[in-house]
């Protein structure tokens, strides 16, 4: 094979080949080319995004460890930390949805327990195409089963997330996996190699050929031949993952570890180079000692992404303890290398040196590109949209019932009922509310988390749309009484070689950086997923935000369902009629994604947080839900359906009813309370506008003289999508 053919096959550019050749002072061997292609891939090196990621704030009051490690770490008090991160597994999940989603969950779990934290909650962000697209039902079924089966088998509850449908994801669905673990602040472990002469252990499952080239595959666009990439998709075994988790956590109690890292993307290659780079050392690896399932070449051993494997730098003298613990769990534990002072990774195979590469060249000094940016042409037409073309509905009841039968407005219970949400017995709020919430058994506190983004908003205006997505995540947390303290992001975008895509990326990060600084919520970890493109068609920019907060009184947290007959319902903030840019209503009625986005008011969100934290702390809120997609009509409908209780409401509608009820004003929360006087006083204290809009009662949702909907009929309509998709006869999944 010629050099040019080899470079094309592995995704290395001619310029990158020359850089490698210059530093080696010789022609690179095939294995060295393979290593460079993996380490310099977009997936591993962040070569197109690193320049822009520096804009994000990463330090704050609660931050213990920020970006650069396997996961971010924040202080939650009482000697405990929350360790969390979100990762994409988009390309594998499009090629092979079950294994792609399952191994996405497995990988993010390992990122957490490699830091010394026990995983206690999973969330997911799932983005699918139109249900009428032929492959979408297959993708939904495989992804949902993959997420559920892996998390359920390992014993980590999946208790939140989001699901979004749009035709832009027809040929590039997204799977974003979030995991949070809890550990001791004095027992944090890092992915670092140190201690010259220390042994390097390979632990976990044996290595096979599954997943070879996965990092490179995830750093390229698709065409109609995507099925040919199936061998690059990893195959997971959650039962082995559970054994690996317990073995690692047990070993971490023995003072035997200097550093530990998951063999994730690019497998043994990335884990060894990254650990050596963080420690400023080198490593000699003896590849013929790696436990194998089959005969493999050195390149295959280095690039395999077989699952459930870790690389450990152990302390000298602790070798027997490492082997003893992993033998107890029936897992391999072999010394395959040693830490050196050469700042190079040297690979041996059958007593021959097959590669000798500078650590920094593959990691911290890898090529970085500042790609050109250009404002997309479509934006010239998107903002200027005449909403009067929307025909005023003659019957809002019939219209909304039809909307409930669409994927966007459907009840997602048939999806999340596939997930075990109560294992470990820490779950306070199950799926279906604004945020997931668990208790920390050893303290009186709780930790809440949410995943959110509105891709339509970001498509219309990447800067403002990302800020609105941030604010939605922020409201989700304060609705359960949690103070937002940090976030992880999963930045899903199209082809970075397209200047218009890079413009979207840059503006989205600019917007996120301002939001983070203004509301003091730093970024502590994250992931960038580029090349979400098939045959030149890119997805909408999708910067998923996984935000985490501390709940001082978790058992006071309200959920979204109305609770008590005859209690008062208040609206915090004020609906601005006609804020329909990028709205679900506009998409439903016109099939368009356009218009000016809703206002942004950071100061209002600070005041809302003050009110919600105090009100939840005092236990005077029975239910809470923020206004987002579908406006206040959908908000009240969801509260009614979740609580099996309706209400009679009087809203200050002055113009077109549909333009008010479906307006997606940012910064509005609906609450049910058992103490009217105190709620009104707290709102006044925090400078929050408040209106009593009605009371809970009966089996219908009644708004002014416009809306009159039976709860049971709404619930039935909202389940039709998944009944038709999966054949369920009722809501008992």
What does this structure look like?
It is a single chain. The protein is α+β, with helices and mostly antiparallel strands and 733 residues long. Among the domains are: 1-39 and 189-368, PurM-like C-terminal domain (Phosphoribosyl-aminoimidazole Synthetase, Chain A, domain 2, Alpha-Beta Complex), CATH 3.90.650; 558-733, PurM-like C-terminal domain (Phosphoribosyl-aminoimidazole Synthetase, Chain A, domain 2, Alpha-Beta Complex), CATH 3.90.650. Helices cover 35% and strands 24% of the residues. It contains 27 helices and 28 strands. The strands form 5 sheets. It has a 7-stranded mixed sheet with strand order 8-10-7-11-9-12-13. Helix 19 (462-478) packs parallel to helix 22 (602-618). The radius of gyration is 26 Å and the shape is globular.
Please name the defining characteristics of this protein:
733 residues, alpha+beta, Phosphoribosyl-aminoimidazole Synthetase, Chain A, domain 2, 7-stranded mixed beta sheet, 27 helices, 28 strands, 35% helix, 24% strand
Stretches where pLDDT is under 50 for at least 5 consecutive residues are none
Strand content: 15-25%
| Relative helix content | 25-40%
Mean pLDDT: 94
Number of strands: 28
As laid out across the biggest beta sheet, the strand order is 8-10-7-11-9-12-13
CATH topology term of the domain at 1-39 and 189-368 = Phosphoribosyl-aminoimidazole Synthetase, Chain A, domain 2
CATH homologous superfamily placement of the domain at 1-39 and 189-368: PurM-like C-terminal domain
CATH architecture of the domain at 1-39 and 189-368: Alpha-Beta Complex
**Overall geometry:** globular
The secondary-structure class comes to alpha+beta
Distance between the termini: 54 Å
Largest sheet: 7 strands, mixed
Our count of helices gives: 27
Please report the first level of CATH classification, the CATH class of the domain at 1-39 and 189-368: Alpha Beta
Radius of gyration: 26 Å
């Amino acid at each position: 094979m010629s050099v040019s053919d080899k470079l094309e096959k592995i995704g290395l550019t001619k310029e990158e080949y020359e850089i490698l050749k210059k530093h080696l002072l010789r022609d690179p061997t095939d294995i060295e080319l393979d290593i460079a292609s993996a380490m310099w891939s977009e997936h591993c090196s962040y070569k197109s995004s690193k320049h822009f990621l520096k804009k994000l704030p990463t330090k704050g009051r609660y931050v213990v460890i920020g970006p650069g490690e396997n996961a971010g770490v924040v202080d939650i008090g009482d000697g405990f930390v929350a360790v969390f991160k979100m990762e994409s597994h988009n390309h594998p999940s499009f090629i092979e949805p079950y294994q792609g989603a399952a191994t996405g969950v497995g990988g993010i779990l390992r990122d957490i327990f490699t830091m010394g934290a026990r995983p206690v909650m999973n969330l997911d962000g799932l983005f699918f195409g139109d249900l009428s697209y032929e492959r979408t039902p297959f993708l939904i079924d495989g992804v949902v089963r993959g997420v559920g089966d892996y998390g359920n088998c390992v014993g980590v509850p999946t208790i939140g997330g989001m699901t979004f449908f749009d035709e832009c994801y027809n040929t590039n669905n997204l799977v974003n996996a979030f995991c949070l673990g809890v550990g001791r602040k004095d027992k944090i472990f890092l992915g670092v190699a140190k201690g010259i002469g220390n042994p390097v252990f390979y632990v976990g499952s044996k290595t096979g050929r599954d997943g070879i080239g996965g990092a490179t595959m995830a750093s390229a666009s698709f065409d109609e031949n995507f099925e040919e990439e199936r061998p690059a998709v990893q195959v997971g075994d959650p039962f082995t993952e559970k054994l690996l988790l317990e073995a690692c956590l047990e070993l971490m109690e023995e003072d035997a570890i200097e550093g530990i890292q998951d063999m994730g993307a690019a497998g043994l290659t990335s884990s060894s180079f990254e650990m050596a780079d963080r420690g400023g050392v080198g490593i000699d690896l003896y590849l013929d000692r790696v436990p194998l399932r089959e005969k493999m070449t050195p390149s295959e051993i280095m690039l395999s992404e077989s699952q459930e494997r870790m690389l450990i730098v152990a302390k000298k003298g602790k070798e027997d303890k490492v082997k003893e613990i992993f033998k107890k769990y029936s897992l391999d534990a072999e010394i395959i290398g040693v830490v050196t002072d050469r700042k190079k990774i040297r690979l041996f195979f059958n007593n021959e040196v097959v590669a000798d590469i500078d650590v920094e060249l593959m990691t911290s000094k890898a090529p970085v590109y500042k790609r050109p940016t250009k404002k997309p042409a479509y934006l010239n037409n998107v903002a200027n949209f005449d909403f009067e073309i929307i025909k005023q509905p003659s019957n809002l009841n019939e219209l909304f019932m039809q909307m409930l039968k669409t994927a966007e407005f459907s009840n997602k219970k048939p999806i999340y009922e596939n997930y075990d949400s109560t294992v470990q017995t820490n779950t306070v709020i199950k799926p279906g509310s604004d945020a997931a919430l668990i208790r920390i058994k050893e303290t009186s506190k709780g930790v809440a988390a949410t995943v959110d983004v509105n891709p339509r908003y970001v498509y219309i205006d990447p800067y403002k749309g990302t800020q609105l997505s941030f604010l939605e995540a922020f409201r989700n947390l304060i609705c359960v009484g949690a103070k937002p303290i940090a976030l992880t992001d999963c930045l899903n975008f199209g082809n970075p070689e397209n200047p218009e895509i890079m413009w979207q990326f840059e503006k989205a990060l600019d917007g996120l950086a301002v939001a983070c600084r203004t509301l003091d919520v730093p970024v502590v970890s994250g992931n960038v997923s580029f090349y979400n493109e098939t045959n030149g068609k890119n997805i909408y920019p999708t910067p998923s935000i996984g935000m985490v907060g501390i709940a001082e009184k978790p058992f006071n947290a309200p959920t979204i369902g109305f609770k008590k007959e005859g209690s008062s319902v208040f609206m915090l903030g004020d609906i601005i009629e006609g804020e329909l840019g990028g709205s679900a209503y506009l998409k439903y009625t016109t099939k368009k994604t356009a218009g000016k986005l809703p206002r942004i008011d950071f100061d209002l969100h600070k005041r809302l947080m003050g009110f919600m934290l105090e009100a939840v702390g005092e236990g005077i809120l029975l239910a809470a839900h923020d206004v987002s997609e579908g406006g206040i009509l959908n908000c009240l409908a969801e509260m009614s359906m979740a609580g099996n209780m309706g209400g009679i409401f009087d809203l200050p509608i002055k113009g077109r009813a549909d333009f008010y009820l479906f307006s997606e004003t940012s910064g509005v929360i609906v609450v049910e309370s058992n103490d009217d006087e105190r709620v009104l006083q707290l709102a006044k204290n925090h400078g929050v506008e408040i209106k009593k809009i009605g009371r809970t009662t009966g089996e219908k949702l009644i708004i002014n003289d416009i809306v009159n909907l039976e709860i049971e009929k709404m619930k039935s309509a909202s389940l039709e999508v998944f009944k038709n998709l999966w054949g369920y006869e009722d809501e008992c999944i």
